[in-house]
Design brief:
5-stranded mixed beta sheet; alpha+beta; 2 domains; about 325 residues; about 15% strand; 10 strands; binds copper (II) ion
Length: about 325
């Protein structure tokens, strides 16, 4: 029995589709997805991978088939028929890629928009609104009462959420954890202004939204966490922001992804994703450590007059030759 070519085409089409769909989900090329945003990016990547594998198999398959089927036979010096142009075919092979490209564009714009890419100032605007509506939230005083800071910010958020008839509700929900990131050659500095913590290593609680406001002191850096599928330039003289919701506990690398000088390769740190209780414990430890450190130094050097300066004056003296400006110091130790 001879199988008609239309049946063959159908069978090959089904097999190609199944293989492409399977490979698009099982390529194993990406690190584990550790944030909610990672699933959006992976969906886009897997779709592009599925389409690409399908096109690759069709193109290479047709190429190999033709090279074999129409190979030159011994003693045959004739040439094939000379074909000049085929309008319907050209329309078809222009239309198909055009539809694919437009589809992927719309999909990728949607992912970027969902991740907040088109509204980088939303995260920035939210805390300002919060300050206007919540007068008793002096963030600078929080650190002296360890453990109350998170509770206070969360109750503020509830107050904001219940205040629904107000016209100053931000377009985007304020984040649960706000962090100021400073990029400098060759380190990331993290300041949790609501919690009074200054650190070189990020800790974030699972399932809470985290907003980063980032600026650079010297050259362009970039904040990249491959497991979160987020990457954003950090630019001198300009604030950039990122938002994400960590979901998988673990210790991931934060990598500078913008060549920023001879030691760029060493500019990396960690982000620890942990359950909220562990995060709260870490916050308390940091707050105690950072408040006792200074007390201890003063206790051990009671006669040193420099210790009676404000922390900023004290630090400025030491930071001068490190290229750290008073601006950074202000961020680090407001
Ligand atoms: Cu860098």
């Amino acid at each position: 029995m001879k199988i008609p070519s239309s049946i063959w085409t159908l069978i090959i089409g089904i097999v190609l589709t199944l293989v492409s769909l399977w490979y698009g989900q099982n390529h194993g090329l990406l690190p584990i997805p550790a944030s909610d945003e990672a699933n959006l990016v992976d969906g886009l990547f897997n779709t592009m991978m599925t389409v690409s594998v399908g096109i690759f198999l069709i193109v290479e398959g047709v190429l190999l088939y033709c090279a074999f089927r129409y190979r030159r036979r011994p003693g045959d010096n004739s040439d094939g028929p000379s074909i000049h142009g085929n309008i319907p075919l050209e329309i078809l092979w222009t239309a198909i890629p055009a539809i694919i490209v437009v589809g992927i564009s719309v999909y990728s714009f949607d992912v970027y928009n969902t991740m907040g890419g088109f509204d980088p100032h939303a995260a920035h605007a939210a805390p300002i609104v919060q300050d206007m509506t919540m007068a008793p939230a002096p963030s600078h005083n929080m650190p002296s009462i360890p453990g109350t800071a998170i509770a206070a910010t969360l109750s503020d958020r509830d107050a904001l959420a219940s205040n629904e008839d107000s016209s100053v509700i931000p377009a985007e929900e304020p984040a649960d954890v706000n962090i100021k990131v400073t990029g400098l050659q060759y380190a990331f500095l993290f300041n949790y202004p609501d919690l009074g913590i200054f650190t070189g290593e990020l800790h974030v609680p699972i399932g809470k939204t985290v907003a980063l406001e980032m600026s650079a002191n010297d050259v362009i850096h970039a904040f990249w966490v491959p497991e979160f599928r987020i990457k954003q330039d950090i630019i001198p003289g300009r604030e950039t922001s990122l938002r994400f919701t960590p979901k998988t506990p673990g210790d991931y690398a934060v990598i500078c992804a913008e060549l920023c000088g001879p030691y760029h390769g060493a500019m990396r740190t960690h982000i620890v994703v942990e359950p909220p209780e562990a995060f709260n414990n870490w916050v308390k430890e940091q707050q105690i450590a950072q408040s006792t450190q200074k007390a201890q130094v003063i206790a051990m050097n009671p006669d040193n007059s420099s210790l009676h300066q404000t922390p900023r004056q004290y630090l400025a003296h030491h930071a001068e030759h490190l290229g750290i400006t008073s601006e950074t110091l202000h961020q680090l130790h407001p």
